[in-house]
Design goal:
Elements: E1 4-8, H1 16-32, E2 39-43, H2 45-48, H3 55-71, E3 80-83, H4 89-98, H5 103-107, H6 110-115, H7 124-138, E4 144-146, H8 149-169, E5 177-179, H9 214-222, H10 243-254, H11 265-291, H12 294-322
Parallel strand pairs: 1-2, 2-3, 4-5
Helix pairs in contact: 3-11, 3-12, 4-7, 4-12, 7-8, 9-11, 10-11
The structure holds adenosine monophosphate.
């Protein structure tokens, strides 16, 4: 099978969107894997530092996210779980790639333009972050990188850098194809259904966190934006005309609930609450058990990171030597 590689940045606490759009897919990939070298799932904790973070909070977020990876059903005997910062090859290759990246290319990155350009206190690492992301990918030699719209430009740059490097210094990197991710649940913010439910949203009101207890889920769903439609066909899906209602319907079916017989927004919200609570409850139970043994969680990610060091060593060594060092 194609090697699966995916990283989540530990900024903000994981949401229902992360579960349906990422963790659940990771578990599906695990089910199709033959060996732990088929799937690498990591925490991109170095990327977290491109914006200011309180160290103690970052440490907690990393620990919580690592625990949630396991609570969601990822099994370290079948997939490799790691932390980017524990695999020095990521930052070592990132520097070599920075030496092949043009400032003109970095200036064109939409995320940098939107998030940091022109602001004097923007961290230099936010500017060079695409080189680190290219290293994250190229070290593992995936044939394909499925990527959503927001990261597409960075993966295109990764390809350009790999092609340029191979051309200049001799073939070292596999040039990955950029593919679209399988269409799947895109969970929208319950208060602003035109924007993605995001772990770093300014307001928590429209964001369901994986560790939200049932009463918090109920309250957030009860307050979800719908519309003033009361007709017999009020409960129907239309992303353009009824974004809030469509989002609730999508969440309901992604969480295994049935939309049959639901005629009112009140009934829809009750069904969504029930389905979300049922989806989160096994995960929260597993989390509670794992959280009692943080040393185990740490050891899983430390062991996986050792495996990553072994897998990536030859790529880093080849790139270093090719450049004349
Ligand atoms: P992010 O939280 O944006 O760093 O994304 C981490 C992973 O979770 C990526 O694979 C995203 O595609 C997925 N993801 C994040 N938010 C959502 C969402 N609202 N709906 C579906 N997938 C999401």
């Amino acid at each position: 099978m194609d090697r699966n590689l995916s990283l989540i940045t530990p900024t903000g606490r994981l949401t229902l969107g992360n579960h349906l759009g990422a963790l659940r897919r990771f578990v599906a990939a695990q089910d199709a894997a033959y060996s732990p070298d088929d799937c690498f799932f990591g925490l991109s904790d170095l990327h977290a530092l491109t914006t200011p973070q309180d160290p103690a909070e970052l440490r907690d977020t990393i620990r919580e996210m690592a625990t949630l990876f396991l609570a969601a059903g990822l099994d370290p005997s079948r997939v490799t779980l790691f932390r980017q910062s524990l695999v020095p090859a990521h930052r070592e290759l990132a520097y070599l790639l920075e030496c092949t990246t043009y400032t003109g290319e970095l200036n064109r990155m939409i995320q940098f333009k939107e998030k940091g350009r022109g602001v004097p206190s923007t961290r230099a690492s936010l500017y060079t972050y695409p080189a680190l992301m290219a290293a994250d990918i190229l070290l593992y030699r995936p044939a394909r990188v499925p990527v959503g719209e927001d990261q597409r430009q960075h993966v295109e740059l990764t390809r350009d850098l790999a092609i340029r490097f191979n051309h200049t210094y001799g073939t070292v990197f596999v040039v990955p194809e950029v593919t679209l991710p399988r269409a799947g649940a895109r969970v929208m913010d319950l208060q602003e259904p035109s924007t993605k439910m995001s772990k770093s949203a300014a307001s928590d009101a429209g964001v369901i966190r994986l560790l939200d207890p049932p009463d918090v889920v109920r309250r957030k769903v009860a307050r979800a934006v719908t519309d003033s439609d009361v007709g017999p066909s009020a409960v129907r899906s239309s992303r353009s005309e009824k974004p809030g209602v469509s989002n609730l319907l999508d969440i309901l079916s992604a969480c295994g609930g049935s939309t049959d017989g639901i005629k009112t927004y009140g009934a829809l919200k009750s069904a969504v609450t029930e389905a979300v609570v049922a989806t989160l409850s096994p995960l929260q139970k597993a989390y509670a058990e794992l959280a009692d043994d943080p040393a185990y969680v740490d050891s899983v990610f430390a062991d996986g990171s050792v495996r990553c060091r072994e897998v990536t060593a030859s790529v880093l060594a080849a790139a270093t030597a090719a450049m004349g060092l």
